[in-house]
Inverse folding.
Protein backbone atom coordinates (compact mmCIF):
# COMPACT_ATOMS: atom_id res chain seq x y z
CA UNK A 1 0.00 0.00 0.00
CA UNK A 2 1.59 3.29 -1.00
CA UNK A 3 2.23 5.82 1.74
CA UNK A 4 -0.44 8.48 2.25
CA UNK A 5 1.12 11.81 1.48
CA UNK A 6 0.14 15.41 1.90
CA UNK A 7 1.89 17.29 -0.87
CA UNK A 8 2.02 21.07 -1.20
CA UNK A 9 1.05 21.40 -4.89
CA UNK A 10 -0.67 19.56 -7.72
CA UNK A 11 2.69 19.42 -9.52
CA UNK A 12 4.26 17.73 -6.50
CA UNK A 13 1.46 15.16 -6.53
CA UNK A 14 2.03 14.56 -10.25
CA UNK A 15 5.76 14.26 -9.59
CA UNK A 16 5.19 11.62 -6.90
CA UNK A 17 2.76 9.79 -9.21
CA UNK A 18 5.40 9.79 -11.95
CA UNK A 19 7.99 8.52 -9.47
CA UNK A 20 5.70 5.69 -8.37
CA UNK A 21 5.10 4.67 -11.95
CA UNK A 22 8.80 4.60 -12.78
CA UNK A 23 9.57 2.83 -9.49
CA UNK A 24 6.93 0.15 -10.14
CA UNK A 25 7.86 -0.45 -13.78
CA UNK A 26 11.60 0.19 -13.94
CA UNK A 27 13.02 -0.35 -10.45
CA UNK A 28 11.08 -2.80 -8.27
CA UNK A 29 11.03 -5.68 -10.79
CA UNK A 30 14.85 -5.68 -11.04
CA UNK A 31 15.92 -5.01 -7.46
CA UNK A 32 16.30 -8.54 -6.10
CA UNK A 33 18.04 -9.86 -9.21
CA UNK A 34 20.52 -6.97 -9.45
CA UNK A 35 21.29 -7.05 -5.72
CA UNK A 36 21.92 -10.81 -5.85
CA UNK A 37 24.22 -10.38 -8.86
CA UNK A 38 25.99 -7.27 -7.44
CA UNK A 39 24.97 -5.46 -10.61
CA UNK A 40 24.84 -1.66 -10.64
CA UNK A 41 21.63 -0.19 -12.12
CA UNK A 42 23.37 2.46 -14.24
CA UNK A 43 20.63 2.42 -16.92
CA UNK A 44 17.95 2.96 -14.29
CA UNK A 45 19.70 6.14 -13.15
CA UNK A 46 19.50 7.33 -16.75
CA UNK A 47 15.74 6.69 -16.75
CA UNK A 48 15.46 8.79 -13.58
CA UNK A 49 17.65 11.45 -15.15
CA UNK A 50 15.56 11.63 -18.29
CA UNK A 51 12.46 12.15 -16.17
CA UNK A 52 14.24 15.04 -14.42
CA UNK A 53 14.57 13.31 -11.04
CA UNK A 54 18.34 13.74 -10.58
CA UNK A 55 18.30 17.48 -9.94
CA UNK A 56 15.08 18.04 -8.03
CA UNK A 57 16.17 20.41 -5.25
CA UNK A 58 18.42 22.63 -7.39
CA UNK A 59 17.62 25.88 -9.23
CA UNK A 60 15.87 25.79 -12.60
CA UNK A 61 18.50 28.14 -14.00
CA UNK A 62 20.92 25.19 -14.16
CA UNK A 63 18.41 22.56 -15.14
CA UNK A 64 17.13 21.62 -11.70
CA UNK A 65 13.47 21.47 -10.69
CA UNK A 66 13.60 23.98 -7.80
CA UNK A 67 11.58 21.64 -5.63
CA UNK A 68 11.51 22.13 -1.86
CA UNK A 69 13.13 19.41 0.25
CA UNK A 70 9.64 18.51 1.46
CA UNK A 71 8.90 17.26 -2.07
CA UNK A 72 12.35 16.04 -3.14
CA UNK A 73 12.63 13.83 -0.05
CA UNK A 74 9.25 12.22 -0.60
CA UNK A 75 10.24 11.40 -4.18
CA UNK A 76 13.47 9.94 -2.82
CA UNK A 77 11.52 7.91 -0.26
CA UNK A 78 9.33 6.42 -3.01
CA UNK A 79 12.44 5.40 -4.95
CA UNK A 80 14.04 3.81 -1.88
CA UNK A 81 10.82 1.85 -1.23
CA UNK A 82 11.23 0.25 -4.65
CA UNK A 83 15.01 -0.15 -4.46
CA UNK A 84 17.22 1.07 -1.62
CA UNK A 85 20.42 1.05 -3.70
CA UNK A 86 18.89 3.50 -6.17
CA UNK A 87 17.50 5.68 -3.37
CA UNK A 88 20.88 5.88 -1.64
CA UNK A 89 22.60 6.47 -4.99
CA UNK A 90 20.29 9.38 -5.75
CA UNK A 91 20.80 10.84 -2.29
CA UNK A 92 24.58 10.63 -2.71
CA UNK A 93 24.39 12.17 -6.20
CA UNK A 94 22.31 15.05 -4.81
CA UNK A 95 24.87 15.57 -2.03
CA UNK A 96 27.75 15.42 -4.53
CA UNK A 97 26.10 18.27 -6.49
CA UNK A 98 25.57 20.35 -3.37
CA UNK A 99 29.03 21.96 -2.95
CA UNK A 100 28.98 23.18 -6.56
CA UNK A 101 25.36 24.32 -6.40
CA UNK A 102 25.78 26.06 -3.04
CA UNK A 103 29.42 27.23 -2.98
CA UNK A 104 30.47 27.27 -6.64
CA UNK A 105 30.86 30.57 -8.50
CA UNK A 106 28.39 31.42 -11.25
CA UNK A 107 31.10 30.62 -13.80
CA UNK A 108 31.62 27.19 -12.25
CA UNK A 109 27.91 26.54 -11.97
CA UNK A 110 27.21 27.65 -15.55
CA UNK A 111 29.96 25.36 -16.79
CA UNK A 112 29.27 22.14 -14.89
CA UNK A 113 25.98 22.16 -13.01
CA UNK A 114 23.66 21.71 -16.03
CA UNK A 115 25.45 18.46 -16.94
CA UNK A 116 25.31 17.25 -13.34
CA UNK A 117 21.58 17.92 -13.07
CA UNK A 118 20.58 16.85 -16.58
CA UNK A 119 20.57 13.21 -15.65
CA UNK A 120 23.20 11.57 -17.80
CA UNK A 121 25.99 12.18 -15.32
CA UNK A 122 26.27 10.55 -11.89
CA UNK A 123 28.16 12.11 -8.99
CA UNK A 124 29.83 10.63 -5.89
CA UNK A 125 31.03 12.12 -2.62
CA UNK A 126 34.52 11.46 -1.31
CA UNK A 127 35.13 12.66 2.25
CA UNK A 128 35.99 9.59 4.37
CA UNK A 129 39.40 7.97 4.57
CA UNK A 130 40.61 4.82 6.30
CA UNK A 131 41.78 6.91 9.25
CA UNK A 132 39.14 9.65 8.96
CA UNK A 133 35.58 8.37 9.40
CA UNK A 134 33.65 9.99 12.22
CA UNK A 135 36.69 12.23 12.69
CA UNK A 136 36.45 13.62 9.14
CA UNK A 137 38.88 16.48 9.87
CA UNK A 138 41.69 13.93 10.30
CA UNK A 139 41.81 13.37 6.54
CA UNK A 140 45.27 13.28 4.98
CA UNK A 141 44.79 13.11 1.18
CA UNK A 142 46.91 16.04 0.05
CA UNK A 143 46.58 18.60 -2.71
CA UNK A 144 49.66 20.67 -3.56
CA UNK A 145 49.50 23.66 -5.90
CA UNK A 146 51.52 23.36 -9.09
CA UNK A 147 50.85 26.09 -11.62
CA UNK A 148 47.20 26.03 -12.63
CA UNK A 149 46.60 22.66 -10.95
CA UNK A 150 46.51 20.86 -7.65
CA UNK A 151 48.50 17.65 -7.58
CA UNK A 152 46.48 15.27 -5.43
CA UNK A 153 47.81 12.19 -3.66
CA UNK A 154 45.98 10.03 -1.13
CA UNK A 155 43.24 7.47 -0.71
CA UNK A 156 39.57 8.15 -0.03
CA UNK A 157 37.46 5.31 1.41
CA UNK A 158 33.89 4.05 1.45
CA UNK A 159 32.94 5.83 -1.75
CA UNK A 160 29.38 4.99 -2.83
CA UNK A 161 29.13 3.91 -6.49
CA UNK A 162 32.86 4.42 -6.95
CA UNK A 163 33.90 3.45 -10.45
CA UNK A 164 30.35 4.00 -11.73
CA UNK A 165 30.28 7.75 -11.07
CA UNK A 166 31.27 10.32 -13.67
CA UNK A 167 32.55 12.88 -11.18
CA UNK A 168 33.68 12.97 -7.56
CA UNK A 169 33.30 15.76 -5.05
CA UNK A 170 36.56 15.24 -3.16
CA UNK A 171 37.79 16.72 0.10
CA UNK A 172 41.56 17.12 0.39
CA UNK A 173 44.09 18.71 2.68
CA UNK A 174 45.61 21.90 1.24
CA UNK A 175 47.40 22.88 4.45
CA UNK A 176 48.24 21.45 7.88
CA UNK A 177 46.03 23.86 9.78
CA UNK A 178 43.62 21.15 11.00
CA UNK A 179 39.97 21.87 10.31
CA UNK A 180 40.97 25.03 8.41
CA UNK A 181 43.26 23.16 6.03
CA UNK A 182 40.69 21.26 3.97
CA UNK A 183 39.43 22.15 0.48
CA UNK A 184 36.75 20.81 -1.84
CA UNK A 185 37.57 19.80 -5.44
CA UNK A 186 35.50 18.48 -8.31
CA UNK A 187 37.33 15.60 -10.02
CA UNK A 188 36.13 14.00 -13.23
CA UNK A 189 36.25 10.21 -13.23
CA UNK A 190 38.80 9.89 -16.05
CA UNK A 191 41.39 12.15 -14.39
CA UNK A 192 44.83 10.60 -15.02
CA UNK A 193 46.26 9.34 -11.73
CA UNK A 194 42.82 8.58 -10.29
CA UNK A 195 42.14 4.86 -9.80
CA UNK A 196 39.30 2.96 -8.17
CA UNK A 197 40.08 0.15 -5.72
CA UNK A 198 38.32 -3.23 -5.57
CA UNK A 199 34.72 -3.15 -4.33
CA UNK A 200 34.21 -3.91 -0.64
CA UNK A 201 32.36 -7.15 0.20
CA UNK A 202 29.33 -5.69 1.89
CA UNK A 203 26.44 -7.05 3.92
CA UNK A 204 23.84 -5.18 1.85
CA UNK A 205 23.35 -2.60 -0.88
CA UNK A 206 25.28 -5.06 -2.99
CA UNK A 207 23.95 -3.58 -6.21
CA UNK A 208 26.15 -0.54 -5.70
CA UNK A 209 29.94 -0.85 -5.47
CA UNK A 210 31.61 0.81 -2.50
CA UNK A 211 35.34 1.24 -3.01
CA UNK A 212 38.42 3.36 -2.42
CA UNK A 213 39.46 6.21 -4.69
CA UNK A 214 43.21 6.25 -5.08
CA UNK A 215 44.81 9.53 -6.15
CA UNK A 216 48.41 9.18 -7.27
CA UNK A 217 49.73 12.59 -8.27
CA UNK A 218 46.44 13.33 -10.06
CA UNK A 219 46.14 16.82 -11.52
CA UNK A 220 42.93 18.68 -10.77
CA UNK A 221 42.71 22.27 -12.09
CA UNK A 222 42.54 24.92 -9.38
CA UNK A 223 39.42 26.36 -11.01
CA UNK A 224 37.66 23.14 -10.05
CA UNK A 225 37.88 24.08 -6.36
CA UNK A 226 34.49 24.82 -4.76
CA UNK A 227 34.59 27.73 -2.34
CA UNK A 228 37.81 29.09 -0.89
CA UNK A 229 40.91 27.15 0.04
CA UNK A 230 40.46 25.95 3.63
CA UNK A 231 36.68 26.16 3.46
CA UNK A 232 36.32 22.45 2.67
CA UNK A 233 35.29 21.07 6.04
CA UNK A 234 32.53 23.64 6.42
CA UNK A 235 31.29 22.74 2.93
CA UNK A 236 31.47 19.02 3.73
CA UNK A 237 29.50 19.35 6.95
CA UNK A 238 26.95 21.63 5.31
CA UNK A 239 26.43 19.10 2.52
CA UNK A 240 26.10 16.34 5.12
CA UNK A 241 23.32 18.20 6.95
CA UNK A 242 21.18 17.98 3.84
CA UNK A 243 22.52 14.54 2.94
CA UNK A 244 21.31 13.25 6.32
CA UNK A 245 17.78 14.21 5.37
CA UNK A 246 18.21 12.19 2.19
CA UNK A 247 19.31 9.14 4.15
CA UNK A 248 16.42 9.60 6.59
CA UNK A 249 14.00 9.60 3.65
CA UNK A 250 15.64 6.49 2.16
CA UNK A 251 15.42 4.70 5.51
CA UNK A 252 11.73 5.51 5.78
CA UNK A 253 11.22 4.24 2.23
CA UNK A 254 12.97 0.99 3.09
CA UNK A 255 10.90 0.60 6.28
CA UNK A 256 7.73 1.25 4.27
CA UNK A 257 8.70 -1.53 1.85
CA UNK A 258 9.23 -3.94 4.77
CA UNK A 259 5.92 -2.95 6.34
CA UNK A 260 4.06 -3.42 3.04
CA UNK A 261 5.59 -6.87 2.59
CA UNK A 262 4.76 -7.87 6.17
CA UNK A 263 1.13 -6.74 5.91
CA UNK A 264 0.61 -8.42 2.57
CA UNK A 265 2.14 -11.68 3.83
CA UNK A 266 0.15 -11.74 7.06
CA UNK A 267 -3.12 -11.35 5.12
CA UNK A 268 -2.30 -14.34 2.92
CA UNK A 269 -0.59 -16.63 5.40
CA UNK A 270 -2.98 -18.83 7.33
CA UNK A 271 -2.32 -20.67 10.57
CA UNK A 272 -4.86 -22.25 12.94
CA UNK A 273 -7.37 -21.79 10.11
CA UNK A 274 -7.11 -18.01 9.93
CA UNK A 275 -4.93 -15.37 8.27
CA UNK A 276 -2.21 -14.58 10.80
CA UNK A 277 -3.08 -10.85 10.69
CA UNK A 278 -6.14 -11.76 12.76
CA UNK A 279 -3.97 -12.70 15.73
CA UNK A 280 -3.38 -9.90 18.18
CA UNK A 281 0.24 -10.87 18.68
CA UNK A 282 0.86 -10.08 15.00
CA UNK A 283 -1.45 -7.07 14.95
CA UNK A 284 0.52 -5.33 17.69
CA UNK A 285 3.79 -6.04 15.89
CA UNK A 286 2.40 -4.60 12.62
CA UNK A 287 0.87 -1.60 14.39
CA UNK A 288 4.21 -0.77 16.03
CA UNK A 289 5.92 -1.06 12.65
CA UNK A 290 3.39 1.31 11.06
CA UNK A 291 3.79 3.77 13.94
CA UNK A 292 7.57 3.70 13.55
CA UNK A 293 7.36 4.37 9.80
CA UNK A 294 4.88 7.18 10.11
CA UNK A 295 6.61 8.94 13.00
CA UNK A 296 9.97 8.70 11.20
CA UNK A 297 8.41 10.22 8.08
CA UNK A 298 6.90 13.04 10.10
CA UNK A 299 10.29 13.68 11.72
CA UNK A 300 12.20 14.06 8.45
CA UNK A 301 9.43 16.17 6.93
CA UNK A 302 9.55 18.54 9.91
CA UNK A 303 13.29 18.99 9.36
CA UNK A 304 12.73 19.42 5.60
CA UNK A 305 10.10 22.11 6.11
CA UNK A 306 12.46 24.00 8.41
CA UNK A 307 15.17 23.80 5.76
CA UNK A 308 12.73 24.98 3.08
CA UNK A 309 11.72 27.90 5.29
CA UNK A 310 15.37 28.94 5.68
CA UNK A 311 15.49 28.04 9.38
CA UNK A 312 18.37 26.29 11.11
CA UNK A 313 17.76 22.55 10.79
CA UNK A 314 21.00 20.93 11.97
CA UNK A 315 19.56 19.40 15.12
CA UNK A 316 16.40 18.38 13.26
CA UNK A 317 18.39 16.73 10.47
CA UNK A 318 20.42 14.71 12.95
CA UNK A 319 17.29 13.71 14.87
CA UNK A 320 15.59 12.71 11.61
CA UNK A 321 18.57 10.61 10.52
CA UNK A 322 18.80 8.94 13.94
CA UNK A 323 15.08 8.27 14.29
CA UNK A 324 14.49 7.14 10.71
CA UNK A 325 17.46 4.78 10.43
CA UNK A 326 16.79 3.20 13.84
CA UNK A 327 13.14 2.80 12.80
CA UNK A 328 14.20 1.13 9.55
CA UNK A 329 16.42 -1.33 11.46
CA UNK A 330 13.61 -2.21 13.83
CA UNK A 331 10.87 -2.40 11.19
CA UNK A 332 12.88 -4.54 8.77
CA UNK A 333 13.90 -6.89 11.60
CA UNK A 334 10.27 -7.22 12.66
CA UNK A 335 9.23 -7.82 9.05
CA UNK A 336 11.50 -10.87 9.01
CA UNK A 337 9.78 -11.97 12.23
CA UNK A 338 6.32 -11.57 10.67
CA UNK A 339 7.32 -13.72 7.70
CA UNK A 340 8.88 -16.31 10.03
CA UNK A 341 10.97 -18.98 8.31
CA UNK A 342 10.00 -17.58 4.92
CA UNK A 343 11.39 -14.20 5.93
CA UNK A 344 14.77 -15.75 6.65
CA UNK A 345 15.06 -17.07 3.09
CA UNK A 346 16.18 -15.20 0.01
CA UNK A 347 12.90 -16.09 -1.70
CA UNK A 348 11.38 -13.07 0.04
CA UNK A 349 12.90 -9.57 0.06
CA UNK A 350 12.66 -8.85 3.79
CA UNK A 351 15.99 -10.45 4.75
CA UNK A 352 17.60 -8.15 2.15
CA UNK A 353 15.75 -5.16 3.61
CA UNK A 354 17.11 -6.10 7.04
CA UNK A 355 20.67 -6.25 5.70
CA UNK A 356 20.17 -2.96 3.86
CA UNK A 357 18.83 -1.25 6.98
CA UNK A 358 22.07 -1.69 8.91
CA UNK A 359 24.30 0.67 6.98
CA UNK A 360 22.07 3.77 7.19
CA UNK A 361 22.75 3.65 10.94
CA UNK A 362 26.43 3.94 10.05
CA UNK A 363 26.95 6.20 7.02
CA UNK A 364 26.35 9.95 6.63
CA UNK A 365 27.54 10.23 10.26
CA UNK A 366 27.04 7.24 12.57
CA UNK A 367 24.04 7.41 14.84
CA UNK A 368 26.48 7.99 17.71
CA UNK A 369 27.78 11.08 15.88
CA UNK A 370 24.17 12.22 15.35
CA UNK A 371 23.68 12.10 19.11
CA UNK A 372 26.81 14.22 19.56
CA UNK A 373 25.45 16.77 17.09
CA UNK A 374 22.04 16.81 18.78
CA UNK A 375 23.59 17.30 22.23
CA UNK A 376 25.94 20.01 20.93
CA UNK A 377 23.00 21.89 19.41
CA UNK A 378 21.07 21.55 22.68
CA UNK A 379 23.99 22.99 24.61
CA UNK A 380 24.41 25.85 22.13
CA UNK A 381 20.73 26.67 22.33
CA UNK A 382 20.79 26.63 26.13
CA UNK A 383 23.85 28.91 26.27
CA UNK A 384 22.41 31.45 23.87
CA UNK A 385 19.24 31.79 25.89
CA UNK B 1 -1.41 17.79 -39.01
CA UNK B 2 -4.16 17.81 -36.43
CA UNK B 3 -4.03 14.60 -34.39
CA UNK B 4 -6.61 13.87 -31.71
CA UNK B 5 -5.94 11.09 -29.22
CA UNK B 6 -8.94 9.78 -27.30
CA UNK B 7 -7.99 8.95 -23.72
CA UNK B 8 -10.11 7.12 -21.18
CA UNK B 9 -9.46 7.12 -17.47
CA UNK B 10 -10.05 3.61 -16.10
CA UNK B 11 -9.80 2.12 -12.61
CA UNK B 12 -6.27 0.93 -11.87
CA UNK B 13 -5.95 -2.49 -13.46
CA UNK B 14 -4.27 -3.87 -10.34
CA UNK B 15 -6.94 -2.73 -7.92
CA UNK B 16 -9.97 -4.82 -7.04
CA UNK B 17 -12.85 -3.55 -9.16
CA UNK B 18 -16.56 -3.89 -8.43
CA UNK B 19 -19.92 -2.80 -9.80
CA UNK B 20 -22.17 -0.58 -7.72
CA UNK B 21 -25.21 -2.50 -6.39
CA UNK B 22 -27.50 0.52 -6.96
CA UNK B 23 -27.10 0.90 -10.73
CA UNK B 24 -24.76 -1.93 -11.76
CA UNK B 25 -22.27 0.63 -13.03
CA UNK B 26 -18.54 0.32 -12.48
CA UNK B 27 -17.50 1.85 -9.17
CA UNK B 28 -14.96 4.42 -10.37
CA UNK B 29 -14.86 6.54 -7.23
CA UNK B 30 -13.34 4.06 -4.80
CA UNK B 31 -10.21 3.17 -6.77
CA UNK B 32 -7.36 5.15 -8.29
CA UNK B 33 -7.90 6.19 -11.88
CA UNK B 34 -5.18 5.68 -14.48
CA UNK B 35 -4.93 6.22 -18.21
CA UNK B 36 -6.21 3.16 -20.04
CA UNK B 37 -3.01 1.30 -20.86
CA UNK B 38 -3.55 1.05 -24.63
CA UNK B 39 -4.37 4.76 -24.73
CA UNK B 40 -0.82 5.46 -23.48
CA UNK B 41 0.43 3.78 -26.65
CA UNK B 42 -2.04 5.91 -28.62
CA UNK B 43 -0.65 9.07 -26.99
CA UNK B 44 2.91 8.00 -27.76
CA UNK B 45 1.98 7.29 -31.40
CA UNK B 46 0.25 10.66 -31.64
CA UNK B 47 3.36 12.39 -30.29
CA UNK B 48 5.68 10.46 -32.63
CA UNK B 49 3.53 11.26 -35.68
CA UNK B 50 3.21 14.90 -34.64
CA UNK B 51 7.00 15.13 -34.23
CA UNK B 52 7.54 13.55 -37.66
CA UNK B 53 4.91 15.57 -39.52
CA UNK B 54 4.98 18.89 -37.71
CA UNK B 55 1.59 18.19 -36.19
CA UNK B 56 -0.29 19.05 -33.05
CA UNK B 57 -1.75 16.58 -30.55
CA UNK B 58 -5.06 17.24 -28.84
CA UNK B 59 -6.22 14.95 -26.04
CA UNK B 60 -9.95 14.24 -25.93
CA UNK B 61 -11.36 12.61 -22.84
CA UNK B 62 -14.90 11.99 -21.71
CA UNK B 63 -15.20 11.28 -18.03
CA UNK B 64 -15.91 12.67 -14.58
CA UNK B 65 -13.95 15.54 -13.02
CA UNK B 66 -11.36 13.03 -11.78
CA UNK B 67 -10.38 12.29 -15.41
CA UNK B 68 -8.60 15.67 -15.35
CA UNK B 69 -5.67 13.83 -13.68
CA UNK B 70 -5.29 11.59 -16.70
CA UNK B 71 -5.58 14.53 -19.07
CA UNK B 72 -2.81 16.27 -17.11
CA UNK B 73 -0.60 13.22 -17.46
CA UNK B 74 -1.18 13.07 -21.22
CA UNK B 75 -0.25 16.76 -21.46
CA UNK B 76 2.86 16.20 -19.33
CA UNK B 77 3.90 13.46 -21.78
CA UNK B 78 3.92 16.17 -24.45
CA UNK B 79 0.44 16.63 -25.95
CA UNK B 80 -0.34 20.24 -26.84
CA UNK B 81 -3.86 20.77 -25.56
CA UNK B 82 -6.93 18.94 -24.36
CA UNK B 83 -10.70 18.84 -24.45
CA UNK B 84 -12.50 17.38 -21.45
CA UNK B 85 -16.11 16.41 -21.97
CA UNK B 86 -17.58 16.27 -18.49
CA UNK B 87 -21.25 16.19 -17.51
CA UNK B 88 -23.24 14.21 -14.96
CA UNK B 89 -25.63 13.37 -17.79
CA UNK B 90 -22.91 11.25 -19.41
CA UNK B 91 -22.57 8.82 -16.50
CA UNK B 92 -23.49 5.28 -17.44
CA UNK B 93 -23.21 5.83 -21.20
CA UNK B 94 -22.72 2.62 -23.17
CA UNK B 95 -20.54 2.36 -26.27
CA UNK B 96 -23.29 3.83 -28.48
CA UNK B 97 -23.73 6.86 -26.25
CA UNK B 98 -19.99 7.30 -25.77
CA UNK B 99 -19.30 7.13 -29.50
CA UNK B 100 -22.09 9.64 -30.16
CA UNK B 101 -20.69 12.07 -27.60
CA UNK B 102 -17.06 11.72 -28.71
CA UNK B 103 -17.86 11.89 -32.43
CA UNK B 104 -19.89 15.06 -31.87
CA UNK B 105 -16.91 16.69 -30.18
CA UNK B 106 -14.49 15.35 -32.81
CA UNK B 107 -16.61 16.78 -35.62
CA UNK B 108 -16.65 20.07 -33.75
CA UNK B 109 -12.90 20.38 -33.12
CA UNK B 110 -11.84 18.83 -36.45
CA UNK B 111 -9.06 16.28 -37.05
CA UNK B 112 -6.82 14.70 -39.66
CA UNK B 113 -6.20 11.59 -37.59
CA UNK B 114 -7.89 10.14 -34.51
CA UNK B 115 -5.83 7.63 -32.53
CA UNK B 116 -7.05 5.53 -29.62
CA UNK B 117 -6.28 2.27 -27.85
CA UNK B 118 -7.95 -0.80 -29.37
CA UNK B 119 -9.90 -1.38 -26.16
CA UNK B 120 -10.19 -0.15 -22.58
CA UNK B 121 -9.25 -2.34 -19.63
CA UNK B 122 -12.50 -1.68 -17.76
CA UNK B 123 -15.29 -2.77 -20.13
CA UNK B 124 -13.10 -4.37 -22.82
CA UNK B 125 -15.72 -3.86 -25.53
CA UNK B 126 -13.25 -2.84 -28.23
CA UNK B 127 -16.01 -1.38 -30.39
CA UNK B 128 -15.47 2.33 -29.90
CA UNK B 129 -12.95 2.87 -32.75
CA UNK B 130 -15.35 1.27 -35.25
CA UNK B 131 -18.34 3.22 -33.93
CA UNK B 132 -16.42 6.51 -34.05
CA UNK B 133 -15.29 5.90 -37.65
CA UNK B 134 -18.82 4.98 -38.66
CA UNK B 135 -20.38 8.01 -37.05
CA UNK B 136 -17.71 10.31 -38.50
CA UNK B 137 -17.93 8.67 -41.94
CA UNK B 138 -14.17 8.17 -42.15
CA UNK B 139 -12.07 4.99 -42.66
CA UNK B 140 -11.16 2.87 -39.67
CA UNK B 141 -7.76 1.19 -39.45
CA UNK B 142 -7.85 -1.15 -36.47
CA UNK B 143 -5.30 -3.00 -34.32
CA UNK B 144 -2.35 -1.07 -35.70
CA UNK B 145 1.12 -2.19 -34.67
CA UNK B 146 2.74 0.29 -37.06
CA UNK B 147 1.50 3.56 -38.54
CA UNK B 148 2.99 5.43 -41.47
CA UNK B 149 1.68 8.68 -42.87
CA UNK B 150 2.65 9.92 -46.31
CA UNK B 151 0.89 13.03 -47.50
CA UNK B 152 -2.79 12.30 -47.38
CA UNK B 153 -2.39 8.54 -46.97
CA UNK B 154 -2.14 6.51 -43.80
CA UNK B 155 -0.82 2.94 -43.88
CA UNK B 156 -0.95 0.60 -40.92
CA UNK B 157 0.26 -2.87 -40.16
CA UNK B 158 -2.82 -4.47 -38.68
CA UNK B 159 -2.05 -7.19 -36.15
CA UNK B 160 -3.45 -10.60 -37.12
CA UNK B 161 -3.06 -14.14 -35.82
CA UNK B 162 -0.70 -14.95 -38.69
CA UNK B 163 1.35 -11.73 -38.71
CA UNK B 164 -0.06 -8.53 -40.10
CA UNK B 165 -2.17 -7.09 -42.89
CA UNK B 166 -1.15 -3.90 -44.62
CA UNK B 167 -4.13 -1.54 -44.62
CA UNK B 168 -4.14 1.76 -46.50
CA UNK B 169 -6.64 4.60 -46.24
CA UNK B 170 -6.88 8.29 -46.95
CA UNK B 171 -6.99 10.90 -44.21
CA UNK B 172 -8.93 11.82 -42.20
CA UNK B 173 -9.18 8.46 -40.47
CA UNK B 174 -9.51 6.66 -37.14
CA UNK B 175 -6.66 4.38 -36.07
CA UNK B 176 -6.78 2.02 -33.09
CA UNK B 177 -3.48 0.74 -31.73
CA UNK B 178 -2.15 -2.32 -29.89
CA UNK B 179 0.72 -2.46 -27.42
CA UNK B 180 3.24 -3.73 -29.98
CA UNK B 181 3.27 -0.33 -31.68
CA UNK B 182 5.76 1.57 -29.50
CA UNK B 183 7.09 2.15 -25.99
CA UNK B 184 5.20 4.99 -24.28
CA UNK B 185 7.46 7.64 -22.79
CA UNK B 186 7.34 8.73 -19.18
CA UNK B 187 6.46 12.31 -18.47
CA UNK B 188 9.35 14.40 -17.20
CA UNK B 189 9.37 17.02 -14.48
CA UNK B 190 9.64 19.69 -17.17
CA UNK B 191 6.63 18.11 -18.87
CA UNK B 192 4.68 18.24 -15.60
CA UNK B 193 5.47 21.94 -15.20
CA UNK B 194 4.66 22.66 -18.87
CA UNK B 195 1.32 20.81 -18.62
CA UNK B 196 0.21 23.38 -16.06
CA UNK B 197 0.16 26.05 -18.75
CA UNK B 198 -1.42 24.05 -21.58
CA UNK B 199 -5.02 24.83 -22.54
CA UNK B 200 -7.73 22.42 -21.39
CA UNK B 201 -11.20 23.18 -22.74
CA UNK B 202 -13.98 21.81 -20.55
CA UNK B 203 -17.25 21.08 -22.33
CA UNK B 204 -20.65 20.16 -20.89
CA UNK B 205 -23.28 18.36 -22.96
CA UNK B 206 -24.88 21.72 -23.73
CA UNK B 207 -21.53 23.27 -24.71
CA UNK B 208 -20.85 20.40 -27.08
CA UNK B 209 -24.36 20.41 -28.52
CA UNK B 210 -25.11 16.84 -27.46
CA UNK B 211 -28.73 15.84 -26.81
CA UNK B 212 -28.86 14.61 -23.18
CA UNK B 213 -31.63 12.18 -24.11
CA UNK B 214 -29.22 10.19 -26.28
CA UNK B 215 -26.45 9.60 -23.75
CA UNK B 216 -26.06 8.40 -20.16
CA UNK B 217 -27.47 5.38 -18.37
CA UNK B 218 -31.06 6.16 -19.41
CA UNK B 219 -30.23 6.05 -23.11
CA UNK B 220 -28.08 2.93 -22.92
CA UNK B 221 -29.16 0.19 -25.31
CA UNK B 222 -27.60 -2.38 -23.04
CA UNK B 223 -28.51 -3.17 -19.47
CA UNK B 224 -26.80 -5.14 -16.71
CA UNK B 225 -29.51 -7.40 -15.28
CA UNK B 226 -27.46 -9.06 -12.60
CA UNK B 227 -23.87 -9.64 -11.63
CA UNK B 228 -21.95 -11.83 -9.24
CA UNK B 229 -18.46 -11.88 -7.79
CA UNK B 230 -16.01 -13.97 -9.68
CA UNK B 231 -15.86 -17.38 -7.96
CA UNK B 232 -12.62 -18.08 -6.10
CA UNK B 233 -9.99 -19.87 -8.12
CA UNK B 234 -10.32 -23.64 -8.14
CA UNK B 235 -7.42 -25.74 -7.00
CA UNK B 236 -5.26 -26.76 -9.96
CA UNK B 237 -4.67 -30.28 -11.21
CA UNK B 238 -1.57 -31.92 -9.82
CA UNK B 239 0.09 -34.38 -12.15
CA UNK B 240 2.46 -36.82 -10.44
CA UNK B 241 5.38 -37.79 -12.59
CA UNK B 242 5.68 -41.56 -12.68
CA UNK B 243 7.82 -41.63 -15.75
CA UNK B 244 4.92 -40.43 -17.87
CA UNK B 245 4.88 -36.78 -16.73
CA UNK B 246 5.59 -35.48 -20.21
CA UNK B 247 2.70 -37.25 -21.90
CA UNK B 248 0.33 -36.37 -19.02
CA UNK B 249 1.26 -32.69 -19.38
CA UNK B 250 0.69 -32.93 -23.12
CA UNK B 251 -2.70 -34.58 -22.54
CA UNK B 252 -3.67 -31.77 -20.20
CA UNK B 253 -2.65 -29.09 -22.69
CA UNK B 254 -4.52 -30.91 -25.49
CA UNK B 255 -7.65 -31.20 -23.33
CA UNK B 256 -7.50 -27.43 -22.70
CA UNK B 257 -7.02 -26.93 -26.45
CA UNK B 258 -3.66 -25.18 -25.90
CA UNK B 259 -2.03 -27.58 -28.36
Amino acid sequence: MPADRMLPTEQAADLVALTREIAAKELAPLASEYEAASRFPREQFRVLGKAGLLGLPYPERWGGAAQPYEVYLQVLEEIATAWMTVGVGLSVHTMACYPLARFGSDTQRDEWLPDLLAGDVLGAYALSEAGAGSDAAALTARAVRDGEDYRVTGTKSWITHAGEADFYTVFVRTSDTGTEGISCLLAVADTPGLAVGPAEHKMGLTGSPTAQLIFDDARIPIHRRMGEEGEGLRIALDALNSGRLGIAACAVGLAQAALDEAVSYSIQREQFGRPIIEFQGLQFLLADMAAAVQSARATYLEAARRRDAGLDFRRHASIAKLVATDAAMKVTTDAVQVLGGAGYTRDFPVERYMREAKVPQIFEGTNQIQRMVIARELRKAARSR
Amino acid sequence: MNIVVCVKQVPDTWAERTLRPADSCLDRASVDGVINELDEYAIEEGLLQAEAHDGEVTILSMGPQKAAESIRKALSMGADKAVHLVDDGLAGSDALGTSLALSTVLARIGFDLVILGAEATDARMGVLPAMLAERLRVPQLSLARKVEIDGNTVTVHRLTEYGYDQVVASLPAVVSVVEKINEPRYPSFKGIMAAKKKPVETLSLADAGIDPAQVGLGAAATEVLSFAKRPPRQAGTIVKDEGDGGSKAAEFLAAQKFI
Remarks:
- Chain A has a mean pLDDT of 96.
- DSSP finds ten helices and ten strands in chain A.
